[in-house]
Amino acid sequence: MRRTLFTIAGVSAGLLLAGPLTAQTQPPAGRGNAGGFRGGITIKDGEQCPPGTTEVRPRNCLGPEMPVPSILDYRPKSTLVAPTHMVPKAKFPVIDFHGHPQQLLASTESLARMQASLDSLNVRTMIAADNVSGERLKRVMDTVRASASMKDRVRVLAGINFNGVGPGWAEKAIAQLEADVAAGAVGVGEIPKSLGLTVRKPDGSRLKIDDPALDPIWDACARLNLTVFIHTADPQEFFKPLDYTNERWLEQALFPERRYPQDKFPSFETLATERNNLFKRHPKTKFVTAHLGWHASELGVLGKLFDENPNVYGEVGAVLYDIGRQPRAAHDFFVKYQDRILFGKDSFQPEEYPYYWRVFETKDDYFDYYRGYHAFWKLYGIDLPDAVLKKVYYQNALNLLPKVPTAGFPK
Ligand SMILES: [Zn+2]
User: Fold this and answer.
1) What is the DSSP string of 356-411?
2) Judging by DSSP bridges, how do beta strands 41-42 and 123-132 pair with one another?
3) CA 201 / ligand 1 centre spacing (Å)
4) Ligand 1 centre and the CA of 103: distance in Å?
5) 320 C-alpha vs ligand 1 centroid, how far in Å?
6) Side-chain half-sphere CA neighbours of 201 within 13 A
7) 37-61: per-residue pLDDT in tens?
8) Angle subtended at Cα 89 by Cα 143 and Cα 340, rounded to the nearest 5 degrees
9) If you measure from the C-alpha of residue 218 to the centroid of ligand 1, how many angstroms do you get, rounded to a whole number?
10) How far does the centroid of ligand 1 lie from the alpha carbon of residue 363, in Å?
11) Distance from the alpha carbon of residue 346 to the mean position of ligand 1, in angstroms
């Protein structure tokens, strides 16, 4: 019996890296081992329980008696009864620094639809970070200006085209940027993650984020007082082996294109180093690192980045799961770096904004996040003081984007 158990465990261990965790992957029955707790399996100090079992007492592993649900089907309902404060509308008007309204900017009718959503959330201003330029940017600004109620509530960042970086590229890119500013662009971005991950130079080599050929455009941004909004890399787990210790296993299994196998892509560390070199080499250019630079799970690293680079700011889009799982540390971090953090949402899903308001404004315990595949854990409110909320919601963005209309924001 004992030998059978370990054969099954051995098969499971083989499947561990290859197959999904399903009800078909049966655990060892865990019965009949006289050495263990209620017939479980005994392990030595420092050993892990075999697959399909869990440590029920020190060094004693037991497997469930019935088929184990997959991680998709196990949906326990919390029995916690605690105060809840839903926050459908932000306490102060908000600038969404990381907007992707895309086709909502196509007509005054679609703008009106977006306005209804924004009003219900208390988002006053949408910054479109759709990486547009040239005729497209002009069309968007024409549509915005034609809307009596939205003309002050949408602004656009200018995109930069990184194709063909080499002799003559910078002059062309700067001329295009100046034209985009004349057409109404208020900043630059979102510099996409493809810079660093996939964009190639004409000779086929990877265009590094800190490539000196790009220096003139970053200097031009400083000269034109344009803040640069830049997305670098992706969650660190996407660069790591996809085994059952990976916190984003489910997401990468659902969306295989989010994986960055290390034989084909640069590492997260390489990309972060290139990005930090860029920040350091251009101290007069202001940069906002999207998604808190994917350092929200290591606030010490992010704090060091802010400390060493006074020209660097961070935006919170799509990393709420990391902020809301460390409410005390995140509270202190936001208070300490209150001048450096900006609200942004990324993908435009009106029903998801209130999760941010609730994390930032309440001290609620243990509530659901909006995407189970991002984070299988719960969130907690970080209870920010009003003065900090105002900075994160709009004041920092107004400072970084001085051409955004200030009407509608408290003084
Ligand atoms: Zn984005």
Assistant:
1) HHHHHH----SB--S-TTT-SS-B------HHHHHIIIIIHHHHH-TTS--TTS--
2) unpaired
3) 23
4) 15
5) 15
6) 14
7) 567 899 999 999 999 999 999 999 9
8) 80
9) 20
10) 28
11) 5
Nearest one of 70, 36, 71, 72 to 54, comparing CA atoms: 36
Pick the CATH number of 94-400 from 3.40.366.10, 3.40.50.1000, 3.20.20.140, 3.30.479.30: 3.20.20.140
- The predicted model scores a pTM of 0.90
> 238-272 pLDDT, tens per residue?
999 999 999 999 999 999 999 999 999 999 999 99
Name the phi and psi angles at 131, rounded to 5: 60, 45
**Interval between CA 78 and ligand 1 midpoint (Å):** 33
Which residue bears the tokens 């070199």?
277
Distance from residue 215's CA to the centre of ligand 1 (Å): 23
User: What is the rounded CA–CA span in Å between residue 142 and residue 159?
Assistant: 17
Using an 8 Å Cβ cutoff, are 368 and 354 in contact?
no
- The single residue listed with the structure tokens 């865990």 is 30
Segments making up each domain of the chain, as ranges: 2-62, 94-400
